[in-house]
């Protein structure tokens, strides 16, 4: 069975681009963070704003490896896809891909990211909260995604 992804479609905006009209590469990292926020809130049913704001928990990036394959340009639609690669005791390893939406979608950018659950009270890593693990289990069951 093919691995199912969480995905978000978005338009490349002027604010995403450099003077040449292509996505300025740090903007992909902003898009990655937004994708994780959407995955938590919509995919895992764990409200990301409350996770950080009310519960004072964090999800900093511990590791990020990426390859830029093809430019994305202002006005294009792209799809950002997230796959859960590994669940650790305190971290999640994610595979991320950004593709164009034309007839033959082209990969624009790929990344592997490790995010760590932390307490914002002392900036130390903590075990992944139970509701996040439960959300992952529900999401995997619903999507057919199995590690």
TrEMBL record:
Assigned keywords, A-Z: Hydrolase
Pfam families tied to this protein: 4HBT_2
Assigned EC number: 3.1.2.-
InterPro entries: HotDog_dom_sf
UniProt-listed Gene3D superfamilies: Hotdog Thioesterase
GO molecular function (one): hydrolase activity
Domain of life: Bacteria
Name assigned to this protein: Thioesterase family protein
Phylogenetic lineage: Bacteria, Pseudomonadati, Pseudomonadota, Betaproteobacteria, Burkholderiales
């Amino acid at each position: 069975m093919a691995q199912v992804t969480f995905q978000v479609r978005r338009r490349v905006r002027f604010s995403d681009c450099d003077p040449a009209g292509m996505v300025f590469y740090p903007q992909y990292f902003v898009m990655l963070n937004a994708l994780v926020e959407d995955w938590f809130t919509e995919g895992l049913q764990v409200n990301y704003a409350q996770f950080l704001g009310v519960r004072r928990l964090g999800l900093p990036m511990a590791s990020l490896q990426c390859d830029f394959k093809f430019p994305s340009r202002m006005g294009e639609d792209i799809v950002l896809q997230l796959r859960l690669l590994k669940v650790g005791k305190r971290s999640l390893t994610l595979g991320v891909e950004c593709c164009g939406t034309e007839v033959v979608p082209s990969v624009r950018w790929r990344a592997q990211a490790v995010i760590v659950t932390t307490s914002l009270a002392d900036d130390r890593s903590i075990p992944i909260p139970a509701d996040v693990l439960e959300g992952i289990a529900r999401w995997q069951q619903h999507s057919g995604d199995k590690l």
